[in-house]
Amino acid sequence: MKKIPYYPGCTLKTTGKNFEDSAIATAKVLGLKLLEIDRWNCCGTVTSLTQDDLIHHIASVRNFIRVQEMNERGEVDDYRLLTLCSMCYNTLKSVSNVMQERPDDLDKINNFMDREEDYKGGVTVVHLLELIREMGFDEIKSKVKKSLGKLKVSPYYGCTLLRPKEVALDDPEVPTIMEDLLNAIGVDVIDSPKKSMCCGSYQTVRNPKTVVRLGYEIIESARKRGAEALVTSCPLCAFNLDDRQKEIKLEHPDFERMPVFYFTQLTALAFGLKKDVNNFDLNFTDPRPLLKKKKI
Amino acid sequence: MAKEKNIMEKIAHANQSVTKGIDPKDVKHWAKIYIMGKVYEVPADLTIMQAMEYAGYRFIHSCGCRAGFCGACSTIYRMKGEYKLQTAMACQTRVECGMYLVQLPFSPAEKPIYSVTKEPYEGNSFLKYFPEIARCVSCNTCTKACPQDLEVMDYVQAALRGDFQRVAELSFDCIQCGMCALRCPAEIVQYNVSQFGRVMYGRNGFPENKALKKVVKATEKGEYKKDFKNLLGLNMKQSKEAYKKQQATKAKFLKGGKK
Amino acid sequence: MSTKTEYKLIGGYPQDMRNSIKKVEATRKKRAGKVLEGMSLKEREEVLNQCHPDFRPGGKRKIGLGLNKGNIAPNEVADLIEAHPLVDPKKINLKKIDHDVDLLIIGGGLAGTAAALLANDGGVKTDKILLVNKLRHGDSNSIMAQGGTQVADAPEDSPPIHYLDAFGGGHFTNKPEVLKALIEEAPHSLKWLVDLGVLFDRTEDGDFVRLAGGGTSRKRMHACKDYTGMEEVRVLRDEFRNREIPTLEYCPVIELLTDPTTKKVTGAVIWEMETGDYKVIRAKATIMATGGFGRLHVRGFPTTNHYGATNDGVVLAYRAGAKLRDLDTVQYHPTGAAYPQQIIGLLLTEKLRSMGAQPVNVDGEAFVYPLEPRDVEASALIKECYVKNKGVPTPTGMQGVWLDTPLIDVINGKGTIKDSFPGMVRMFERFGVDMVKDPVLVFPTLHYQNGGIETDPLANSSIDGLFVAGEVSGGVHGKNRLMGNSTLDCIVFGRISGRTAAKYLKKNKTAGKLSFKHLERYEKLLKDAKIKTNRKAPMVLPDYRGKEALERMLDIFN
Question: Chain B within 8 Å of C144 (Cβ-Cβ)?
């Protein structure tokens, strides 16, 4: 089994446990062992857009040093850092790029972090979706044990997997990576024009009304085209699109709740893995009635 | 008897430097330190606290237990010729030649109000009470400032992901001196964050202790009343006998592993 | 000006001490797991008479005035009792009341903090409570307690067994009904602490780790690594702050106030150290929880106590007419640090011996059962140094014996010392000594005030309106306290005093008048006893200023 350094991020340890468990189980089927880096710290959450705001890059660099150490100790087979959460992916990858492009800034950061070994550069950040694409979707297809054919699902990318283009894991305008995966596991994929519209992100803290409005648009746009569920790779999108359905319902009394899956929950289902890796209890809208209806 | 009286005198004499002030006549080695910028010559074998007293300070703050437990004597210093700003507990740090020091008797800190007994044991309560922990940029300044050498940043990170146990374990030796909070660029009050983590973990992290529950119940029911009545009714001789008998059972009960 | 160290230190020790350590190492394996037998009651008595500071002639005298006239007390305590007030009462205006409360609590260690919480539980409103501290809230002897808290909750244990251990340990001089109250309330108190979140040491499966202590016949010590008191204080103080109970810091009480006719305690005068002015507090009930007296350095001993442990509560209460008891005995902890200079006197917890460390002499020989009651153990150490001359001399001229700490890892497995005594390992490390590898040098140190203000099982003092909790009280431990019964005392009687005060306040709705009438009476007693002195009390804080600096002090601002 190939060992790869894995960065979970804060949310996956609490409300996103359903994402983490199903992802680890999925990766195992694909011959990947996710080794959690020790003493990891928050990625920084949002990349600072100010070029010289170096202090906000430290968090990510510190995590890269952990990856470097794991490699020096020979514990892993990969110099890349794997993430699941889209937000962590975006932040870590941005900083990784900056450190690659601006060696003077890296020097400054190394100098500041006097208690750590120097980060020598070179750690790249990779999302599980990218690794799956790398293996080939035929490989995925060959692992499928259970048909999900009757499930009509619309992929939701949001912002952070695709923007800015320097960190995008696919064509930012016409992404297909999620569709390809869903097709490989036999889901009925429903396309929606709002699949990469912003969910409202951190507006959810101060300005939930905006988030409710956006969520309603995104969900209804997918539903209109026949979707029964959404699929995402971001705990924040999941929160905004799923938990906020309570508030959507208050504004639109005839609104019907729609489950939101993590893509790894669907792969786990398709691979016929034990049900507990999916932790459906943690999905805000319980997807089990839908799955039952579809006899999955 | 004269000789025995001597014992107490000898002991008192040997301890004079600790129990009374120090006589410069007894000092063999000196250090030059700077207290708030002013130079003082002090005995080199002393802690910062003892040295300040030697120099003439009578503490009315910045001094508590004098043994490294209370966190009252937070001190910052720089060594001549070095850029690093260091932290210390004055009672636990020996003076060194060329120390420029000042004490920080108080750190203004926001402490949120919560109820340990009512607060649900959920990971996101850290962020509920301490939203500023999301401002942590992992600069690690808190860790570097900690005179107890705790991994402060690591426990703030653990708080961010709601890991009560890790917060409690990493922060257990915290003496709440406030250095981390004073140095933090994100203005987090780390020692209050970990205090919350520890009480929550202490209350919720373990199964109810059955043995304790049993004895509490037995006490409430008055099950020991008779035994106590008997014990309190014994005369001196009987008490001594009973005590001797009980002490003789020691060997049987005190044997065995610790953990 | 030389800055060189005279002695070349090897791992923190000079060569001659190193030589002795070699001998300790040579016998370690043979001693592991084997301890000498405990002394008989008769042997204990002998060594106490021969070597205990309390039993040696000198150092004490009869109190010359008041209710306890004729009782023996250490000179240092008697000096404070036979003294005038700090401030001329005429200079204090009692008409302007700065704080008008139901309950005044003096002292914010474990006892005072627990009292505030239980008083609040008992119906006293938070804004009608005031906790005043000489230093900061929590700066106390409580916060320094290392070893643990005794509670008889193990299946093979019971409260009556705990009672008898403590009664025998106190040489059968404890006030029985007060001791009974301590033991009976112990399990509830432990449960209360756990419910508030105190992190006691646990086994893998979540059960309490229970250890033995000196004089205990069962394992009942509940520790929080070697930060037991600190953890207990932190948690209670956090709860106190969550309830937003008012508190004042750096405000020592310099005098109590009493009603001129009923003699009831009706408040206090505090002195704000930072600014130098005074404030008047009127209170319907007052709890005295000021702690002990280690900073009096009785018989010239160093102390484990905190900076403010100066006996203030005993002095103030005695002036107001409260009865005292058992002042003649002082607890010397057998194992204070004797080396290096910077930490002389600081506590090296009894838990070290609970977990296998043995006292060993200069030749590497064990000479005493490691867990005798504290007074007996301390006497045996003094005897080894000053009668048998088998002590280890230090560069500053002290004598000490080794406490063979590396034995703990030999017996319990590698890493035990670091896990169980992080605070102590850290302290020695700071001064260049590695207690995991090398033994540490110890000598008895002044640790605890066994006696104090006499109380009953409900924490009443002998005067109206004054309640007492913690080390400042006398009677519960008799003439010697066992390990782990002090934090217990503070928590239990803190709780009881809070409860009692709350009940008292339901019946007593007014404070009474504020006066210094008791001081007039006290001055007359001093005069009648023909005590002529310039001494003033309470001490408030000790003075360690250097001689040179003191000689040149000018008091310009006063």
Answer: yes
Listed residue (A294, A249, A272) closest to A153, CA to CA: A294
CB A199 within 8 A of CB A240: yes
Residue type at position C517: K
Residue C71 belongs to some domain of the structure? no
- Give the global pTM: 0.92
Q: Is B21 on the interface with A (CB under 8 A)?
A: no
Q: Are residues C225 and C371 in the same domain?
A: no
B2: pLDDT strictly greater than 80: no
Indicate yes or no: CB of C241 within 8 angstroms of CB of B32. no
Q: Contact at 8 Å (CB) between A169 and A221? A: no
Q: Measured between CB atoms, does C109 come within 8 Å of chain B?
A: no
Concatenating the DSSP letter of every residue in B62-121 gives S-SSSSSSS---EEEEEETT----EEEEGGG-B--TTEEEEE------------TTTS--
Where are the domains positioned within chain A?
2-128, 143-293
Neighbouring-strand partners of residue C460: C467
User: What is the pLDDT at residue C482?
Assistant: 87
- Flag if A112 and B123 touch (Cβ within 8 Å): no
Candidate from C138, C188, C300 with C-beta closest to B15: C300
What lies within 8 Å, CB to CB, of B6 at 6+ separation is none
- Of C484, C71, C98, C149, which is closest to residue C314 (Cα–Cα)? C71
Q: Give the number of residues written for chain A.
A: 296
How far apart (Å, rounded) are the C-alpha atoms in residues C501 and C510? 13
Residues of C serving a catalytic function are: 333, 353
Contacts of B135 in chain A (CB under 8 A): none
The answer to whether B187 contacts chain A (CB < 8 Å) is no
**From residue B209, how far is each of B119, B215, C190 by CA, in Å?**
21, 10, 11
The answer to whether B164 touches B121, Cβ cutoff 8 Å, is yes
Give yes or no for C393 touching B (CB within 8 A): no
- Residue A8 in contact with residue A89, Cβ under 8 Å? no
| pLDDT score of C16 | 92
pLDDT tens, C435-472? Answer: 999 999 999 999 999 999 999 999 999 999 999 999 99
Does residue A163 sit in helix, strand or coil? coil
Q: Does domain A143-293 have CATH number 1.20.1250.20?
A: no
Touch between chain C and chain B (3+ CB pairs, < 8 Å)? Answer: yes
The CATH topology of domain A2-128 is Glutathione S-transferase Yfyf (Class Pi); Chain A, domain 2 (1.20.1050)
pLDDT (tens digit, 9 = 90+) per residue, B229-241?
999 999 999 999 9
Contact B160 A10 (CB under 8 A): yes
Reported as a single tens digit per residue, the pLDDT across B99-134 is 999 999 888 999 999 999 999 999 889 999 999 999
**Whether the complex's predicted ipTM surpasses the cut of 0.90:** yes
Q: Which residues of B touch C6 (CB under 8 A)?
A: 28-29
CA A47 vs. chain centroid, Å, equals 16
